[in-house]
Every structure is written in C-alpha cells, then in structure tokens.
Amino acid sequence: MKKFFVIISALALTMCASCGKVDKASDSNAPVSEMTEASTVQPDPLAPTSESSTDSADTPETTSADSQQVTTAATTEIAAQEQVDPLGGGSFSYDSNGAVVFDGDPSLQDDRVLISAAQALFSSACDTQWNFTVSCPYTIDTSNYIENDFGWRFNLITDDGISSYADVQKDYYKVFSSRYPDPLSSLYIENNGAVYALNAARGMNLYYSTSKITGIQSRTEDEIFFTVENYYDGSDRDTSTPYSETDTFSAVNENGVWKAGQFTLPY
Q: Among residues 122, 88, 82, which one has the least CA distance to residue 108?
C-alpha cells in the first residue's frame, strides 16, 4: 500500500513537471507571435498613405516652378493686352499687289503704327524693286531675244497682257508711286508689239543684314518721309566691324493706298 502511494506521488510529480514545460513553451512563443502580427500590420514607410493619396488627387501639389509659370503666364497675358501691337493691330494690311492699305485714316494713327506700316511697305518695295530690276517678274523666252547697242541680250516676255513698255510700268507702279521716276527704261525694250527684258540676275549684296525704319523725318499732305537704317555685317571692310547706313524712305498716299516714293534698294 505504501508502495502504491509512492508510485502515485511519482506520477503526480512527473505530470506537474510536464505542465511546467508546456507553460514555459507557451510563454516563450508569445512574443514571437506578437512580432509576426506587428510586422504584418505595420504599413510600408515608403508607400503613400490613404490620406496623402486623397489629398494629392483632390488638390494637386503646386511647386515653386509651377507658381512661377502661372505668374509668368499671367504677366505675359496682361502685358500683351496693354502693349501696342507693333504691326498696327490690324490698322493696315497689304493689298493684292503689295502696297499698304489702312483700315481708317492714316493721319489719325499713332507714329508707332505709321512706322510699322512704313516697315511693311519698305519690305514690299525691296521685293518689287529686286524683281523688276535684278530678276524679272514675268515668264521669258531665252531663245527669242534682241540686243541693244552694247550687245546686251533682252529676252522676250511671253506673259499675256504684257505687250508694251507701259504695261510693265503699270505693274511696277502698283507698289511704287508714279511721282518718282522708275528705273525700268534700261531694263525693258518694246519692239514690234512685244516687250523684252534684260533679266540681269545679279547676286544680292552678301554683306547686307537688314533694314529698319527708325523714325519720321517730315510730312506733307499726302507723303510721309521716314529714316531707314540699313545694316551690314562689315565683312567687306578690313575691320570686319558691323555698320549701318542711314537713308530716306517715303510713303505716298494715293487714294487711300500707301505706295513707295523715295527709295533706294539697300542691297
């Protein structure tokens, strides 16, 4: 009997020891479970939060560069509204021939607008003068020609409606005023109901850069005289220093159409 109680007691101690080991194991595993759960729940520090995503969607982020662009655009728009259009703001335009026509009375225009109109007319005068005196604005037949006393060859103009020297003058004076003499007499010859053109076809002045109408010199009732500055790159001189030459250009009002008057081709 005594022996039986000893056995029972030994079994009881063994079971208690086993319970103690299970509890210790449970205690040691608890922190591991908590760390695993925390790692799963913790958000990625580099990932945007739902709050920031919502804010960025509803309110775009404005950087200093964006602010500067907005400010610059606004300033430019205001400046454009206040600045006088250097082309006259629709006050004048070219007609179909290249002369300048004002929408209203030119005498009522600001000087800046008149200078802009003169710049446009000067450009058209350069093109017209070049076409009539250096090149030829018409179709020519190089196989049909005549020669003058100097042996210069003049080619037949084949365009319809050009059968006299007066026809050529009429076209030239669509841009230039007949108040001033034309340079056409040495370049076009009328012969037997036809017109022949010299078509010199020289090269342009390589040193020429540009021309700018810089101011108004004087006015009459129907003519305005302007100062034109012709610029050259200077490569034709030993110093190769750019330079300019001052000339006079005038615009003649003929029945509401501005035509070139006093003029010298700058190239």
A: 88
Indicate the DSSP class of residue 85: P
Going by C-alpha positions, the residue among 81, 124, 87, 117 that lies closest to residue 101 is 117
Backbone angles phi, psi at 204, to 5 degrees: -75, 155
- Where b means 16+ CB within 10 Å and e means fewer, 167-189 reads bbbebbbebbbeeeebebeebbb
Residues of the chain with pLDDT under 50: 1-42, 44-60, 62-86
Share of the chain residues as helix, strand and coil, in percent rounded to the nearest 5: 40, 25, 35
- Evaluate whether 246 touches 240 at the Cβ level (below 8 Å): no
DSSP conformational letter for 176: B
Give the residue carrying structure tokens 């003169």.
118
Q: What are phi and psi for residue 34, nearest 5 degrees?
A: -65, -40
Cα(223)–Cα(254) distance, rounded to whole angstroms?
Answer: 9
Paired tokens of 197: 């053109």
pLDDT for residue 86: 47
pTM score, whole prediction: 0.66
pLDDT of 117 reads 97
